[in-house]
């Protein structure tokens, strides 16, 4: 029924265009604008949604508030991305030796005159930038304006030309130079005024203030003779009898400027003398206490001396997490190297190794089997991580011994089909297996140490460590970029292969992201 209605609508539109030839050009232009708009807004991977939107009637508008809000946010993000792209293109144009054609030739070393997604991937690998396949695909589709799967030089140049901001085409009038000059002068005057006001506000530490602070600390009251509030002074008019001066016994005097300067200098000199006396008395009291120390003071001194040593041993979560991740990365590198050495050996077989270890013919391995093989005890830690019941089946044993590289896994599976059954493991293969189990055991001991250290330091919990790595994205999931940014903040820049080994170790369920549950499981909390 839906196909019938669409065919009928197409038929009616065709009849309308044949009757009205002038309307064909307008309809064609509207459809072109509509298709460009849909190409920007709709996701390119969802083909069903594109077909559904294409079959809708364009003349009937949609007044859904949620759609309008989401569309406005989308256009806002598109504008922001265009602005950032324009700023970066402007920086490139400021360089003296920049040209888009030279960039195209640099990205196309084979001179094929077109760019593929592999060219972008090679560019990011040369710059040591981590980019995921879906991000690379979306970036490639941004450049691929014709949507034909390749980018020619015209498309590449057009992408850069579209986002260049030309100041000559700006409609806003540019203000005159005189206005700008006056504006700069006014701003400079304001800065000078603010600096002068700040200087006037700064309080000068006079000897009187120092003296008053010292006397307050010792518990004594400041003397009245050093009070600086002397705007009006009452002076005894004369020492004669009251009979001679019946009308006025006290005279109100306002001191002039010279008399005021003299009083200020006099009080400052007295304050310096008194300050010198107080400081000298304090030094003498300290010397007397040092010569005859009591038991209480000696204990306090010993406590003060030991305090910096305690501060050195304070638990720092970021340093602790960085050291733990680096140790784990080194373990993963060594374990992966041993696994690759085993896989490259021509006479190595996972099936034969499992048969040789399973001497009891039970179909699974327990800790006693491994302990007899390498002559070491307490290897149950390795089995507990592989399986909760402490029994390793054949599929779990493959995951324990196989490297992360898919290529080596496929080569080993091909080799397993051609090898004969053997129940003995000897020579170099036995040495490598013993070394592998030893490193796995040391790695589990590292997890136990981390667990114990976290239990002793109650000020930091496992959730806090998780959020330290997930600080940039804050999505309750640790990605490869989050792990790389955390180590970069701690001044550690590992190789990409080593970083992927560490990330695969943390990602226990192999879903491409480290959740909080994975983080708890890996450290046995």
From TrEMBL:
Give the domain of life.
Eukaryota
For the region Disordered, give the residue spans: 185-261, 278-311
Q: Which InterPro entries match?
A: Ca-bind, EF-hand-dom_pair, EF_Hand_1_Ca_BS, EF_hand_dom
Q: Does the keyword Methyltransferase apply?
A: no
Compositional bias ranges of the Low complexity kind: 189-198
Domain EF-hand residues, every copy:
131-166, 494-525
* Compositionally skewed regions (Polar residues) per UniProt: 229-257, 279-292
Q: Which UniProt keywords apply?
A: Calcium, Metal-binding, Repeat
The residue ranges flagged as biased composition, category Basic residues, are 293-311
Q: Which GO terms describe its molecular function?
A: calcium ion binding
PANTHER family from the UniProt entry: CALCYPHOSIN (PTHR34524), CALCYPHOSINE LIKE (PTHR34524:SF6)
> Which protein are we looking at?
EF-hand domain-containing protein
Originating organism: Paramecium tetraurelia
């Amino acid at each position: 029924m839906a196909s019938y209605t669409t065919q009928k609508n197409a038929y009616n539109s065709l009849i309308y265009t044949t009757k009205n030839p002038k309307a064909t050009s307008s309809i064609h232009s509207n459809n072109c604008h509509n298709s460009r708009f849909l190409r920007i807004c709709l996701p390119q991977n969802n083909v069903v949604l594109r077909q559904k939107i294409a079959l809708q009637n364009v003349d009937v508008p949609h007044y859904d508030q949620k759609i309008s809000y989401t569309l406005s946010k989308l256009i806002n993000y598109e504008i922001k991305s265009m602005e950032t792209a324009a700023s970066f293109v402007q920086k490139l144009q400021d360089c003296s030796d920049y040209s888009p054609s030279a960039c195209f030739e640099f990205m196309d070393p084979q001179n094929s005159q077109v760019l593929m997604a592999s060219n972008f991937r090679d560019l990011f690998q040369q710059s040591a930038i981590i980019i995921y396949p879906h991000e690379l695909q979306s970036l490639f589709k941004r450049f691929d304006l014709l949507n034909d799967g390749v980018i020619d030089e015209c498309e590449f140049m057009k992408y850069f030309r579209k986002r260049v901001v030309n100041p000559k085409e700006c409609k806003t009038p540019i203000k005159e130079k005189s206005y700008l000059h006056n504006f700069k002068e006014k701003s400079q005057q304001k800065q000078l005024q603010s600096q002068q006001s700040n200087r006037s506000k700064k309080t000068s530490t006079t000897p009187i203030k120092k003296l008053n602070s010292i006397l307050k600390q010792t518990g004594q009251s400041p003397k009245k003779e050093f009070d600086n509030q002397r705007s009006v002074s009452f002076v005894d008019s004369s020492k004669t009898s009251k009979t001679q001066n019946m009308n006025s016994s006290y005279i109100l005097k306002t001191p002039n400027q010279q008399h005021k300067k003299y009083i200020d200098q006099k009080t400052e000199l007295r304050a310096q003398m008194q300050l010198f006396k107080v400081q000298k008395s304090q030094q003498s009291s300290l010397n007397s206490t040092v010569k005859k120390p009591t038991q209480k003071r000696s204990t306090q001194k010993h406590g003060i001396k030991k305090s910096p040593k305690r501060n050195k041993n304070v638990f720092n979560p970021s340093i602790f997490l960085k050291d733990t991740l680096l140790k784990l990365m080194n373990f993963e590198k060594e374990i992966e190297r041993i696994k690759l050495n085993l896989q490259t050996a021509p006479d190595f077989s996972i099936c034969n190794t499992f048969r040789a270890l399973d001497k009891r013919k039970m179909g699974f391995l327990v800790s006693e089997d491994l302990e007899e093989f390498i002559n070491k005890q307490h290897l149950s830690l390795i089995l507990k991580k592989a399986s909760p019941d402490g029994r390793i089946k054949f599929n779990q044993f493959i995951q324990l011994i196989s490297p992360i590289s898919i290529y080596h896994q496929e080569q080993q599976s091909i080799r397993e089909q051609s090898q004969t059954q053997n129940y003995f493991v000897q020579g170099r293969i036995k040495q490598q297996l013993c070394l592998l189990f030893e490193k796995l055991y040391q790695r589990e001991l590292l997890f136990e140490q981390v667990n114990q250290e976290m239990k002793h330091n109650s000020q930091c919990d496992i959730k806090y460590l998780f959020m330290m790595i997930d600080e940039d994205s804050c999505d309750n999931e640790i990605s490869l970029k989050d792990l790389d940014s955390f180590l970069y903040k701690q001044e550690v820049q590992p190789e990409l292969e080593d970083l992927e080994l560490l990330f695969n170790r943390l990602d226990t369920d192999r879903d491409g992201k480290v959740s909080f549950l994975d983080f708890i499981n890996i450290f046995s909390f």
